Structures are given as C-alpha cells and as structure tokens.
Amino acid sequence: MSDAAPAMLPPALIDNPRLDQWVGFAEPGHVRVATGKVEIGQGVLTAMVQIAAEELDIMPERIRLDAGDTDLTPNEGYTSGSQSIQFGGVALRLACAEVRGLFLDHAAAVSGHPRAELAVRDGAIIRGGEPTGHDYWSLAGAIDLGRAATGRTPIKRAGEHTVVGTNAPRVDLAAKIFGEAVFVHDMALDGMVHARLVRQPRRGATIATVDEAAIRRAAKGPIELVRDGNFLAIVGADETVVEAVAAIAPGHVAWDGVDPINPFQEEARWLLQQPSIDRTIGAPPADPASGARRREASFTRMHIAHASVAPSCAMAVYRDGRLEVWTHSQGVYPLRAALARTLKLDPSTISVRHVQGPGCYGHNGADDAAADAAVIAFKTPGTPVRVRWRREEEFGFERVSPAMVTTVSATLDASGRPADWTTEIWSGRHTSRPGGGGNLLAAEALPDPPPPPPPTESSNAPGAGTRNGDPLYAFPAKRIVHHLIAETPVRTSSLRGLGATLNVFAIESFMDELAEAAGVDPVAYRLSVLADPRARAVVERAAAMSGWQPPSSPSPASGRGQPPSSPSPASGGGQGGGAAGRGRGIAFARYKNLAAYAAIVAEVEIDESVRVTRVWCASDAGLVINPDGAINQLEGGIVQAISWALKEGVRLDTAGISSRDWDTYPVLRFSEVPEIECELVGAVTDNPPLGIGEASGGPTVAAIGNAVAQALGTRLRDLPLTRERVMAALLKA
Questions:
Q1: Bridge partners (DSSP) listed for residue 535
Q2: Do 59 and 130 sit in the same domain of this protein?
C-alpha cells in the first residue's frame, strides 16, 4: 500500500484517531487490541485477532482483545451491514501497521541500525534474523501512542501474509463448547434479582387498572411490582416465581387506548393502499420507442421475525451515580446514548458492555431488554437486575423486518434485453435502531414518552428498503422508485440484508422470466448484460460447480423440470405420493453493490411442498481473513435464506403479532438443511476485503424461486413459498 494522506483514513479511524484506542502494551508479553465490533456468531473476533497479529508480527496467542465496551473500545457504531471487516477490520489493520512502524522507527534510533534492516518477529525487534535485545514491551514506555493515526504506514501485501488467509480456530468457541459462562444469560452478580415486564399492547396504550392483590396472591414467593407510568415490572429474587407471575399478570392489567389492528395486513399487498413518502432515484423513464416491448412483475414478502434461538437478556446495576449495563446489543455506544436520553443521565455516567447472546444479525429485542433492566436498576439503586424476555414476548414485541412489495418492469430491445429498467419498492422502515431514531419500548412506556421517530429513511445507495434495488447489470437506463410507508401495524427495523432480500428475489426472478421469453439460457442471459469481471467470474464459477445445463422446458401438466446432473444425498423421498418435479435455479447479486459478490445455484424437489436438496455458492469477498469463517458465513446465510424462502412469515390477529412460538412461526429444521458447497473466488488477493455476512441471502432466495418456477412450469411471486401456495400453483397448472 502506498503512503496515504489523512483524508484517506477509513471512517472508524477518523472518528477514533488515537492509536492507543486500538493498541496497547501494558501487560508484558501480551498486546491489548480493541475493536468496536462485537461477536454475534459471525467469527469477527477471530478475524480481528488475525488482522492484528499479522500487522503487528506477533503470535495470535499474545493478543488480549477487548470488544464492544464503552469504557475500553473505539466507538464504531453498530456491528451491522457486513461492515465489520470491510471497514472496522481495515481501520484496525492500519492502526496496527502504524504502531509496528513507530516501534521500528524508535528501535532504529536507539540501536543505530538502519531502519530498513530491522523487522519484528513475534514482538521482538530483529536484525538479519537475530534478536537486537529490544521488543515491543521494552520500548513501550518510550513511545507515545496517544497520537492520531496518519494511515501512511504501508500494510503487508497478500504475498507476505502468514496469519491472514489461514483457517484460524474460532477464539470464542472453546468456552461455549465447554460450558463456561460466556453468554449474558449465564451472568450472575451478588444480590441479583430477576425481572419480567408486563408490556403495553400497543404504543400509546395506558394502564387503566392493575389488580395488584390478585397478582401477589398468585405468587408462590416474594415479589415486588415496579411501576412508572405505563412501565410495569415484576421483580423478585426467585426467577421461577417471577416467571410464573409474569405468565398470569397480563390478565390482571386492563389497558385503555388499544385499538384492534387489521389482520389482513400480514400479507404485503396492503402496503399498496397506504399513504407513502415517495422518491425516485435515477433518471426518469425515457419515452418508449414505438412498438417497444414492456414486461412487468410484482413480488411480495411478509413481515419476518429475527427468531433468535434464545430470547433477549440483559443485566444492569445503578450504584453510586453510575449505571452499568451488560447486553448483547450490536451497538453499545448508540445504546448508551439512548439510555442516557431515556433516564436523563449524562452518557459519561453509563457503561455499556457487550456480552455474547443469541445472534440475530439485526435489531431484535436486545436493546429493549437492556433498557428494561436499566430502568428497573435505576429505580432500585444498588441491586443488580437481570431481565430475560419470554419466548412469546420475543416474538410478540421485538421489531420485525417490514413487509415489502417490489415491482420490476423493463422495456426490452430487439434482442429481449432491458433497454430501460425500473425497480419500484413499497416498504416500511428498515432502520429504527436506538441510534437511528427508533425508540426503546421502555422509553415509550415511561411518563412523557418521546415522540415517534420521523418517517424518514435514506433511499440513496446503499439504502435500506431500496438496498440492491439497483441491479448491477449494465442496462442503458435504470431507476428506483421508493414508496416509504410511515405507518405499519407492528414495530419494524433491521434484519439481515434489509430490503436486499426481496429486491434481489424480484430482480433475479424477473431476469429468469426475461431469459425464458428471449429463449436464452439464464446463465448466458445474465452474462450478456453483466460487465463487471468479478461478477461474471462468480456466476461462471457457480454454474461450473453445479454442472449447469440449459434448463429443459417443463410441462405444466407433469411439472418435470431439469433433472439433477448427479444424485444428491438429500434429494430422495418427499412428503406426497411422488415428486411433482425437480428444478434448478441460479441467481446473483453483489450485496449493496459495494460488498461481496455471490452467485447461487439451488436445486429443489417438489411434491406438495418445496424441499431444497442442494446449493452451490461462489463468492468473491476480496481479501479473506479467515477462509473457513467466510465460508461459514455464506453457509449460514444460505440456511437462513432457505428458511425465509420456504417458511417464515409473521402472523397477525386483531391484537397484534399472533405467531409467538415455534409452531406458529416455523423455521427450517436441521433435517431440512441441504448439502451446501461454497467456494471463494479470488480470496488470496491485494483487493480490499469486502463484507460477506449478508452476501448469500438474497441470491439464495432468488435461486430457490427460479428453481421452483423451473420445476413447476409456473412462477410463485409471494414469499414464503409455502405448501398452500405450491398446491394452488399446481391446481392452476
């Protein structure tokens, strides 16, 4: 890397410029490294250790990593958007390289040896391969790291790496496997009490009456009720007692201001009749040429839950004017600011520390559970308070991913390729985190609640609801029309991929439809309008991995599609009296059009329902820090996307969310996970790292949709692709 001016620093280093915010040498033989990014199951801490070890030239075992602590780590906002390595890792890499350079400069000055003859080996300064008697720890006292990073120190090139690019073992797994108390749910502090909340059924609802006597009579042990306005908590030392009371307490609380909602809003097309805030990104459509062909199709997705395996949990204590909070939030600094607003405290008196919990890749109940614990702790000084949500509470009150409608349309040239393209999107807000204008549940229940967040959301790239609405294909003209729906029946916010999942599903499904209309193989059709060489490479590689053949034309009567090129271990059986068909589909996207590229081929088998039997994935994420970790991310995204495609959708009744358990909100079972094969394209490279965590989701959903259409001879455009929708399509065939 050539010398960089300060203006070239990544945002995380601009916001946290001091080198001692990132690296320190207080403990002999070890290095303290800090990151604002947190572990939510994606292996980011392992990758950060590898990055630091590589640029500091030390063994990974010497690193003591601090992550997500407002007292100890840089403020890097949220761990989200597949940005941890692409931005946070790049910042850490530059900081570590500069620290190494400062030590080498100082070693040259005190030893009299030319700087070019010195190097670092496991923290020791060497010359000609021999120790000089100096190391990081002997020199640390003389080097002031309380200085701003410049970004001018060269980082290593790919050919020099010895740690980056290797399959390092996960630093967080051993403790989890061997039962150490690494999760926030396992925390215990002396004098701790447990708490459960009685929730407002809806924003603005007010408590009419509370039958405290009935609640206390139901308790099999001592409890306390903590109330402030419409905030009501049950608190006690025995968690079993508190849990049992929480189950019956809602029946003894009457609410005013609870208007029923319309359960038909669980299907996304209700969005089309709602008031919206409209914006067009891109040039207006040109007048179509005389006789030009135009095609259009609409696709929908229901609200989606995070469906974290364990419910949200947090711990808080307010003592001597300071509030300490332990949480699995993805943004400790934004949460601290939100808690300060809620409790009217100085942020400097609040410490928020990340402790691992159930991963969610988005905004589930973690921040709200932390706020619950903080409010109760603030009102009971000196007593540690642990709040664990119940399963029905998690499903019923977390923010969910908004329902969406995406319509794609194209004017076609003489060859059947788009000459003009429009992606039109209807969606609620995807960005309602505490740091982005969203309110915490506890804040809304307290007296004088904050106003609702303004009905705004950026449509500019990378966008939120508009994410990946701009196809990467080289169409002569294209635009996005965004309809932001300000009022939704349930709370909404971020979930892995945001709007990219449905937008990629719509775009890639439509590309298959256009290829079929043009009489061209879907792979060849995509390549004919795909100019980016890295994009072309992953499409070609995924096709080669799967042994792609141009699909046969299915007969709607028989439903037979392209047979598998080879037997699949997971493709036998089925649930009905013989499979209606098998099919394969391909899809491609570059996440946010600036992160990792991914192409997916999915193979499905259909009788009365859809079963995914095999998936192939090719991805280009630039420089890959930990190949095994990157593949794990792709595989995890594929599994979650299969669940989205086939099963997941939030159900509503007049009271709100009615899908509050694993029966009413089904997810993919372990027995339904197909064989998955992933390859990294161009992983050993001097290209910068690209975020990979959300790259495979949208293309997987789209590839499944294309495979189903190929197998059935008819296309399903509404997610999830449930048995009921498959049967309806078969009956029409």
A1: none
A2: yes
